[in-house]
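> Could you send the GHMP kinase prediction when you get a chance?

Sure thing. Input:
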Amino acid sequence: MLIETRAYARAGLLGNPSDGFFGKTIAISVRNFGASVTLYPSPELTIEPQLQDTNVFRSLHHLRDAVGTLGYHGGVPLLKAAIKKFAEYCENEGIRLPNHNFSIRYSTSIPRQVGLSGSSAIIVATFRALMQFYNVEIPQPVLPNLVMATETEELGIAAGLQDRVIQCYEGCVYMNFDRPIMEQYGYGQYDPLDPHLLPKLYIAYNTDLGKQSGRIHNDVRARWLAGEPLVIDTMSAIADVAREGHDALLRRDTEALHELVNRNFDLRSQIYSISDRNRALINTARACGASASFTGSGGSIIGIYRDDAMLNRLFVALKAINARVIKPYVV
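Output:
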């Protein structure tokens, strides 16, 4: 029995990053890039490392570039953490797993360190493979919580629910993380939307990863918890962007969506530090006439373009600053 599962990159369209602050978001799965997991029975439980998990390098510069792109440990810790969290979930739910071992390996085409959720895609694909191998059903709204817990509790990765929700549901999803809903159910209200409602979208992401500076650390959560009015009001306004965007999508109001995408980033920049590199992505895209906001925490942007002529301008202008443009494939 050979099991193969897959999960895709994602992009936050509106409301990002209010998901971690009882807000609302709209996100899409990006099937241009994906992570796959292969699992099959074996005498011992074996995690097979991939090329990116190697400890052998051609040179000092190769090591530097590999760590800058993939981190210090590659993808193997993601698989270990997902397997551990799956076993704990089954134990807590009283699900008795048969003593069957397996070998597991992963591969990914998702660009790393650019805010397209490559790590969580590997974890989602791992959970799907384990669920199939052991014939365990995890309720769809619960699965994103487990994926997020794998990252936050096991690996110390800062994470919000939006990314894991869209990678588990796929397509286009409107998410409501209002506090009463979260406290009552333990997860948000997730409403799939018809992807045909989406306007013409582009995504652009940095390609010069080896030249990236370190991550910008922000103190927004601490300020929010402390009740700082600017942060609370701004995060509420960002959530309203998603709520208004939901209505605009349903009435196919592309002009309103264009303005909302720009407003999302402009609000975010009031409380978050934005690196020069990331701001250059935004400014270059907007100079072409497109809207632009972050897909995640930075490194890639998403927006609306009007026609093929504008898309071509985006290709040329963003390539000049070492960014690649794609049209996201959403099913």
